[in-house]
Amino acid sequence: MLTPDMARERAHDIVSRARAAGADAADAVLGASGSVEVSVRLGALEDVGRSEEEELGLRVFVGRRSASVSTSDLSSEAMDVLVERAVAMAREAPEDKWAGLAPEDRLLTGNIPHLDLHDGDEPSPASLKEAALAAEDAARAVPGVTNSEGGGASASRMAWALATSHGFAGAYQTTSHGIQASVLAGGGDAAMVRDYAYHAARHIADLDAPDAIGRMAGERAVARVDPAKVASGPMPVIFDPRVGSSLIGHLIGAIAGAAIARGTSFLLGKLGEQIFADGITITDDPHRPRGLRSRPFDGEGLSVSPTDIVRDGVLQTWLLESASARQLGLEPTGHAVRGGSGAPGVGTSNTYLAPGKASRDDLFAGVMRGVYVTELIGMGVNGVTGDYSRGAAGFLIENGELTRPVDEFTIAGNLTEMFLNLTAADDLAFRYATNVPTLRIDGMTVAGG
Question: Origin, by domain of life (predicted)?
């Protein structure tokens, strides 16, 4: 697999070729990755997969016209063909007065920050199989588990590079390790239910033990056996952290530059205004050591730094790449992301909602009748109006206590009101790319099956 230095040199080389072929400006991204995945089921090896791939994306500008192309063939001859095709396409493309490279004075200069994203560890398929079996065995050992969808373990490594014609060339490498288990409980007179657990980390030393992951999967599945139906009505909804993070995803989509520039966001015009309850702070931290989405620079070569998206309930910023920033008359915010082809979009890195002052038990204590949501189904969210309606499963809350599992119900509201009525517990843990503590939202509408 390509090293970061090799990836950076190749990205820089194709940008130079594009300029020589007549492009006024160009940038290129190159990603090279390798991975191994092992899956087991019922104590037996089910599959071993290994993959390696390289993809290069080139974007060229001829005046205000641009075109993007990509390839997995990195031979010199293929690069020449790719450059010629891209420049020819750009000359025929429509003009876009907002398109262009990032502002040169905003590019990251000097040394690229070291974020400890690569541990150099390459587990063997045999050790991955051992971890997968341990996770599944622990899950199946939980009393009440009746079947298994399997366990798995994976390891991957990636080098990512970006080069631009106006002076930026950078690269970094990452590793990722993961373990998961998924099992079923119930049967006979009780319907079968499933649940899962997984953990991912940049360094293998940071992974939870396989048996702890498996045990969590088994306990979650058993707790869901014999679900009841919840009666409809307005009530508090408490979100488990593994599903509460989806609320942050809806916020990020609503403050993305493209949505603001098009006028298609329910938060349009809310910059600098209170959109969450007092005390709520949401931060994006690209410099988190070993973070699952940490990065030393963004998809346009801009420097990045921790940013409060919401501070004490007040919306602090849009998320802008260069094109939407120009359209809005603002500066890019360092949130550009790039794939192998097309123009940059926007995205966050390690985003988290800061812990509140109340304990998790405090959030439950005041709920006489409500639901604790552990699974969300479907995507019934309107980014233009903020209307929210999703299928859910979880547990009934009665007199401040979790009682029995419930499923096949819908939770509904409007994100504008939901954000303002949100209360955060103090149990934040960093396990995912987006992390939140337990969250409570009062006044939602629950429709039972």
Answer: Bacteria
Helix axes 210-223, 125-140, angle to 10 degrees: 30
pLDDT in tens, 350-400: 999 999 999 999 999 989 999 999 999 988 899 999 999 999 999 999 999
**CATH number for region 4-223:** 3.30.2290.10
| Cα 421 to Cα 274: distance, rounded to the nearest angstrom | 12
Write down the domain spans for the chain.
4-223, 227-449
- pLDDT above 70 coverage of the chain, percent: 99
The pair of three-digit structure tokens given for residue 290, joined into one six-digit string: 């070993």
**Residue-wise pLDDT tens digits, 194-239:** 999 999 999 999 999 999 999 999 999 999 999 999 999 999 999 9
Q: What is the pLDDT of residues 18-60, one digit of tens each?
A: 999 999 999 999 999 999 999 999 999 999 999 999 999 999 9
Single pTM value for the model: 0.95
Distance CA 95, CA 75 (A): 31
